Amino acid sequence: MNKKAAFDAWLTTIEMEKSGAIATILKTDQTQGKRNSESLFISKDHSFVGSLGDAYLEEQVIQLAKQKLAEKNPSSETRIFQLLNKQEVAVFVDVFVPQPKILIFGAGHDAIPVANFIASSGFKTTIVDQRPLYITEERFPDIERIIARADDFKGKVIIDDNTYVIVMNHHLERDQEALTFALNSQAPYIGVLGPRSRRNRIINNIKASGSAVTESQMSRLYNPIGLDIGARTPEEIAISIAAEIIAIKNGYSGGFLKDSEFIHHASAVSEENG
Amino acid sequence: MLENTRVIEAIRAARKNDTKAALATVVRVHGSAYRREGAKMIIDEDEKRVGMISGGCLESDVAAVAKEVIASGIPVLKQYDMDEDLVWGLGLGCPGKVEIYIEPIS
C-alpha cells in the first residue's frame, strides 16, 4: 500500500520535472517474505511519502537521499545499511533530477544540427531568434521556438541555473545583446560561436556600454565553443558543441578514453569504496 | 534521462489501460556496464518493452523474469555476471556484473 503511494509520488515528481528520490529495499533471500516491497519517496524540499518499515533505517536513507538531492549531478545507487539488530539491508536510492535545458540564440542554418542533436540527447531545447522566416517548425521540429528581439528577452526568455546557453547569431550586435542577457543569468554554461578575437570585441563592447563583466561571469563563458575535435561542417561543429555541454553537465573534462582504466569517474569511486 | 521519461509515460499508459506490467531497474553495476544505475525498462503482459537496461544482452532474459513477476506479484532481484570474453566474443559489448530489480507495477 505505502509502496504504491511512494511510487506514485515519484512518478508525479518526474512528470512535474522536479527533483526527488525513491528508496526501495531490495529483497534478498533473507528478507524475502518478511518485508513487503517497501519504498520511501523523498522530495527535494524534504517531504516524505511511504515508509521503509524501520525508523533507524529510514533516518540513514533520508540522510543519503538529501545529500544526493543537493548534488548537481547525482547518481542512483544501492547501499548496504545496517539495522539496529546488525542485520544488513540493501536499499536502492533512485535519484531523479530534471532534464537540463538548452537555449540557443540564433536560428541560422548551422543551428539546425545543433538544436536537433542536443534535443535528441535529452536536453529540453529552446531556440530564440527575431526572424520569423528562420525560426520555423519545419526547421526546428519538436523544439520550443521563441520569436524575440533583445528588448523582449526579459519577458519571453527564461534562463535558470539548469539552462545551458549557446550564442550563435552570426551577427555581432545580436550576439552582444544575447550575451549581455545570458551573462546576467545563472546559466552554468554560455558558449559563444566564433573566434577568440570576436569574443573579445563583444566583451569590450559590453564593457564600453557600461556593464561590468565579472570574473565569475567570464568563468562560465566558453569560447571558442566546443570540444577540440577539428570540427568543420555544421554537423561536426554541432557534435563538438553537444559533446562539450554533455561533458560540463556530467563534470568531465573531455578527451580520449583510450587506455583509461575506467569509463565513468563515479564507477571508479564506488569500485574503490567497495 | 530522455529514455526514462519514455518509460514513465509507458508506466502511466499501462496503468490507464489496466495492463499488467513489471518495471526492471538497474540497481547495481560492477565494472563497465553499458547502462548505469537507474536505467529502466518496462515490460507489459504482452511482452511489449520500453526502455533499455543493457546494451541488448539482458533484455530478453529480464523480459522472461518479468513475466514471472507479473504472474506472482513478487519482486525479484536478479544478478547477472557476464563473462567478458563470452559477451565481447558475441559482439554485444556489455561485460561486468549487473543487478536488476524487477518489480510488479499495477
TrEMBL record, chain A:
Which InterPro entries does its entry note?
A: MoCofactor_Util/Proc, XdhC_Rossmann_dom
Annotated Pfam families: XdhC_C
Q: Which domain of life does the UniProt lineage start with?
A: Bacteria
- Give coiled-coil spans as residue ranges: none
| Residue ranges constituting the XdhC Rossmann domain according to the UniProt record | 102-245
**Protein name, please?**
XdhC Rossmann domain-containing protein
Originating organism:
Oceanobacillus chungangensis
